[in-house]
Amino acid sequence: MRSSNFLSALVLLVSLACAPTTALSQPSSPPQGKPPVETPTERLSKARTVMVIYARGNTIPFDVIKSTLEGWVRFTVVEAPEKADLIVEVSTTGGAGEGRVTAPDGPYMQTGRAERSNSASKEASNSEITMTVYDAKNKRVLWTATETAKSAFKQTTRENNLVEAAERLASKFHDCLEPPLPRGQD
Q1: Does residue 183 fall inside a structural domain?
Q2: Residue 147 pLDDT more than 70?
Q3: If both were cysteines, with which of 88, 118, 149, 185 could 161 make a disulfide (CB 3.0 to 4.6 Å apart)?
Q4: CB of 169 closer than 8 Å to CB of 131
Q5: Cβ count within 10 A of residue 136
């Protein structure tokens, strides 16, 4: 009787000891009928074709980001969403920088006589550029970032600031997919 209890205990102990190794040796498979879900980083790293879309605002950031993606060997820029792996949407808000001239009529405070005065004002608000990257197949947002362009009164300075902000945004996206090497390893 004692040997049968010992033998039963030994069989139980051996089966318990072997159970974890057999469970670890078998690869886990997704439930039947459901494909494995890719993370945004995995989807971005597998993508090879991209379509760039202008959403709203100033077209300068759109042009800068599109030309940057065209020059990046990793991607081929396509013109049809069904051919794209990713859709990159570029939008700009604020920073219209439109000048206004006002001419209030009325008495001049010091003399009391009616005089016409002209004043000019110019809006110089910051522009925000947003770049959103979608999966072309399921429209899921994979990456998004916003950069603020410095405000300026002169149009050429304002345009240069938009170019710089769009370049920073494209650089962020590039670094997300291809992180730069740590210093000293390049």
Answers
A1: no
A2: yes
A3: 149
A4: yes
A5: 21
Domain membership of residue 67 (yes or no) is yes
- Least confident piece of the model among 35-49, 90-104, 146-160: 90-104
Question: pTM, whole model, 2 decimals?
Answer: 0.67
Mean pLDDT score across all residues of the chain: 79
Q: Which of 68-76's residues contact partners 24+ apart within 8 Å by CB, and which partners?
A: 68/167, 68/170, 68/174, 69/170, 72/174, 74/48, 74/177, 74/178, 75/47, 75/48, 75/49, 75/50, 76/48, 76/49, 76/50
Higher pLDDT, 116 or 73: 73
**How many domains, in total, are found in the chain?**
1
For the segment 171-186, the average pLDDT, to the nearest whole number, is 85
CA separation, residue 116 to residues 68, 108, 109 (Å): 51, 8, 12
CATH number at residue 163: 3.40.50.10610
Residues β-bridged to residue 93? 128
Contacts of 179 (CB under 8 A, 6+ apart): none
What is d(CA 64, CA 173) in angstroms, rounded to the nearest whole number? 13
